[in-house]
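Field notebook, page 664. I keep forgetting to write these up properly, so this time I am using the form the group agreed on. The chain and the ligand, zinc ion, are recorded exactly as supplied. Prediction of the bound pose follows.
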Amino acid sequence: MADKKEVKNRIEKLKELINHHRYLYHVKDQQEISDAALDSLKKELFDLEQEHPEFITSDSPTQRVGGAPLKEFKKVPHKQRMFSLNDAFSKEDMEEWLKRISRLLTEEEKNAVDFYGELKIDGLAIELIYKDGILETGSTRGDGFIGEDITQNLKTVQSIPLQIKTNEKELVVRGEVFISKKEFEQINKAQEKKGLPLYANPRNIAAGSVRQLDPKITAARKLDSFAYDVLLPGIKTHEQKHDLLKELGFKTNPHNQYCKSLEDVFYFYQKVGKLREKLDYEIDGTVVMVNDNALFEKLGTVGKAPRGAVAFKFAQSQATTKVLDVKIQVGRTGAMTPVAVLEPVQVSGITISRATLHNEDEIRRLGLKIGDTVIVGRAGDVIPNVIKVLPELRTGKEKEFVMPKACPSCGTKLEKTDGDIVWRCPNPNCFARQRRSFYHFVSKSAFDIDGLGPKIIDRLLDEGLISDPADLFELKEGDLVGIERFAEKSAENLISSIKEKREIPLAKFIYALGIRNIGEETALDLAHNFGSLEKLRDAKLEDFDAMANIGPIVAESVYEWFSAKDHAKLLDKFLKVGLKIKNPKKQALGKLSGKTFIFTGSLDSIDRNLAKEKVRDLGGKTTESVSAHVDIVVAGHEAGSKLDKAQKLGLKIINEKEFLQLIA
Ligand SMILES: [Zn+2]
């Protein structure tokens, strides 16, 4: 998106959509899209604004905090603004964050920067003001400047001390109130019994509970709290603030931890991720703070968030991204499956770049157009799918998807029987339906792609990821997500071994095509005879007939293969996806020029394939069948029937030693 106007337009649309969903959530207590999807939109907006700061406006959701205070509550202005945090979702985001803040630090500060890692509780931020050690006011964050007075409600939370031992005239403490997973379930059970709507998550209940006008309701819901900040000058590190809070009798999270470096932060994040299930309250990630309070202050704030802290969140189970294209894939039964090609995006910690759309009806149900922004997830936590289209973000350039009339693999007219929702290719010889040709294509003597056996080919075809061998070269790691038994590591390995085979000698390529009657030897002969794929494609039947080692049946089957329209299309596609075919070196008039060799028996000092190569390098030819065309027979140990036949034909026979002298 290089065009400035497009960027500005996108930012405007994102702001509008995010504000709409925030309003629903905070004011109407409704939710139309998941937190994860909303976070994903906010992240896109944040990133765009980072790249184009000239488009940041004060009304941007990235510049605002929380929700507006409710009218029913008394307002409490905060002495210092209560910020919220920017999100990070990956190591790269964290490295980017450190890079951004490092630019504002001196060399010395940069080297000394360390962190404090905390658990990010899925609750509601609160502020407590103690006057002469007595809890006087408790409030919500509100819009960051003004919160709601919920003192009476917070006084019902057992872990919030009503009185603390301090000499400070006034002490401001900040923290989080939340509800346990167990309590959440019980409240929802009670709601269900009464026929009332269920709460979406524990945070909703916590927020709803502290904002009750009747403190008795709040008291009935066993809220808990953690303190994480105290506004008191003269404390050197954030870690020491936590120590002080603990001393004062506040509940602090025992899993919080000092981190010396970003490496330590990653380790902490991983540890917390494993802990998540075992905790009796919900967390959605970690909070990482610059530990040195002076540095933290120096870094200042940008918009609604301090630069010195970041919410390093867990992988999200949903994200938003763009549909770049819709492709049709052909299954084993000839079924056509539309697949959305996506701008790569992380979902549950894995990058996905495709999502199945199942069939034409599903595309209609979603109302999906090419170019749309969509919410994607992973069905059953595995198969990437499109959950919802966000038509609000359309620019007018989106394109309607049209189901093709013909099979993209073989060109046959598609059929759909009454009552079926799937279009099918009726051609039983359709490339996409012929699995054996795929197995042959990747086999040892052909493309020899590591880790790509028949089982994986079957899966790729069944998932509709490939419909002809050229598609293999367009696979991306993200495409393999969701394929059963496909670990991330093996996906990476497979993609890189396919990449390695992007360059292939012409002879191997011809062999890989699986043309009837063409073995390795004939493929070599064809490669040397024609020298390039173009010449081979242009060849007439008599050109093949004229070749010494090729009989009329073979000549015809090669000619027929190269004349077929769908094969021509396939060959064009190979070139389009970037396959490089290496032409054989022009045969110099070597000293074996014009001579045809045959090998029989085993050789001691040279591999047979290498020996054949030497012969070809020197201008000679090799063959597998004994005939009068053979000039020299190389006989190794235990030579068999070929030797007998050669003797009968009176051919010239030499041993290994003589052969070595010949090629020396
Ligand atoms: Zn077909």
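OBSERVATIONS:
- The chain is about 35% helix and 20% strand.
- Residues 330, 407, 409-410, 412, 425, 427, 430, 432 surround zinc ion (CB under 6 Å).
FOLLOW-UP: compare against the apo run.
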